[in-house]
Prior knowledge:
The protein is of the alpha/beta class. Helix content is 24%, strand content 13%.
Amino acid sequence: MKIDVADAGAGEEFTSRFDPRAFCGGVAAKLKRPRFLGIVASAALAMTMARKANGRVDGFVIEGVSAGGHNAPPRGPMQLSDEGEPVYGERDVPDLEKIRELGLPFWLAGSYGAPGKLAEALALGATGIQAGTAFASCEESGITSELKAQVIGLSREGNARVFTDPVASPTGFPFKVLQVEGTLSDSETYGARKRICNLGYLRRAYKKLDGSLGYRCPAEPVADYVRKGGLEADTVGRKCVCNGLLAAIGLARVDGVSDEPALLTAGVEVANIVQFVKPGSETYSSAEVVERLLKTED
């Protein structure tokens, strides 16, 4: 598998090799190939993947700009709103007609967590929907009960909002950060956190001066990143997505002084998740989400 390496010379290629037989001590396990569903935000990318991918593409998840997690950057030069969020336009709306012409199943994501939205997606030719934000705060979700209670409370008060942060993620992709007090969305909490890179899931390979490969992350300690040849400017505002997301499910690193602060992500529909909470209750189940999403109207 080819590896993307920063600072590599023109024409240089780096690869990683994995031999299941060697890993399993001489006998490779027989595994059933899982389906490959490409997550895309444009018809152009879906068409390229379907026609040129090295292997079979079984379908797509088409994510709109209101979906949670990482978003595709806006097409064209990056422009920011007065609030500092990336500005999306007509060019960023996926062309579903071209996607349908590929003949592969696809699911629509981004503000589909409401009654009638599934029927709307099916009418557009989709196989179904992705509604992660609706399920993120349900009783069965792995996010801690305390955080889920905060998010549901914010939705009930009309104060649940996300900020599409253009620099938070070490990947360089915009990342929707749910604004919750005491998490990394809080500037004071973010500033008080001691930087550490102990997990490294989002590190990027780079070529050292001696030709070997190293790994660096713009969310690691600034001095370490610069020592590895990175630019200090690239570290500004970066958040440790690895530790932050693990902390959100109760697996925070404890350094003996303070717990690792959580980082929450959600789509813009987080403002409306209180719709799933029935009168007299403070929580809601995944079954109640499904029940409501299957309705054709509110």
